[in-house]
Specification:
With 175 residues, the chain is an alpha+beta fold. The protein is built from five helices and six strands, in the order H-H-H-E-E-H-E-E-E-E-H. Helix content is 40%, strand content 32%. Strands 2-1-6-5-4-3 form a six-stranded mixed β-sheet.
Length: 175
C-alpha cells in the first residue's frame, strides 16, 4: 500500500500554519454547507431575530417574546454590569433597568448585520437614546444568541461598558 506524502514545513511557524490550515479546511465545509434541516433552522432563527429587531426599532418591547424566561445572559468584561444573569427577570432588573430608567427616550437599535447558522444568531448593531439629563447616549453592540424553540436560550452581549456606566452614574432615574 502506497501512502501519499506531503512536503513538511521546515520551520515551527510553517508547521503551525499548516496545522491551522488543515483544521480550517476540515471545519469550513461543515459550516458552509448545512443540510436542508439546518438551513431551515438557520432561516427560521434569523427571521425571528430580524423581525424582533424591526419591531424593537418601531418602539415595541420585544424582549418578553424574543427572550426565554430562563435565559442565561452573559455580559463579558469588567464593571458593575458585567456578569451572568440567570433568567430574563434577573437580566432586566440588574442590567437593563439601571440603564433604561436613566433614558428619557426609548433605546432605538440600528442593525448593521445579522448572521445566522443553525441555532446561533449574531447581531451587530448600534443603539441610541437621550438620557434623563438631556445628553445623547450611543453604544455599539454585538449580541450572540443560541436559539431554542424560537426564543433566545443563551445570550452573550458585548458593548461599551464605560458608556453604559457613565449614563448610570451621571443621570437620575425617571420617577
Amino acid at each position: 500500500m502506497t501512502s501519499l506524502r506531503l512536503p513538511q514545513p521546515r520551520s515551527i511557524p510553517g508547521r503551525r500554519l499548516a496545522l491551522a490550515a488543515s483544521i480550517m479546511m476540515a471545519t469550513v465545509p461543515a459550516l458552509a454547507s448545512p443540510g436542508a434541516s439546518d438551513a431551515a433552522v438557520t432561516a427560521r432563527n434569523e427571521g425571528i431575530v430580524r423581525d424582533a429587531f424591526q419591531r424593537w426599532t418601531a418602539g415595541e418591547n420585544v424582549f418578553p417574546i424574543l427572550v426565554a424566561p430562563d435565559v442565561v445572559w452573559t455580559i463579558p468584561g469588567s464593571g458593575p454590569v458585567a456578569g451572568t444573569y440567570l433568567g430574563l427577570q434577573d437580566f432586566v432588573e440588574k442590567a437593563s433597568r439601571p440603564l433604561v430608567s436613566r433614558l428619557a427616550t426609548p433605546l432605538v437599535p440600528r442593525v448593521h448585520h445579522i448572521w445566522a447558522v443553525g441555532e446561533r444568531v449574531i447581531i451587530r448593531f448600534e443603539a441610541s437614546a437621550t438620557t434623563t439629563g438631556g445628553h445623547p447616549y450611543r453604544n455599539q453592540f454585538v449580541w450572540i444568541f443560541r436559539m431554542k424553540d424560537g426564543q433566545v436560550a443563551e445570550a452573550e452581549a458585548f458593548l461599551d461598558l464605560v458608556a453604559y456606566k457613565e449614563v448610570v452614574d451621571k443621570n437620575e432615574p425617571r420617577p
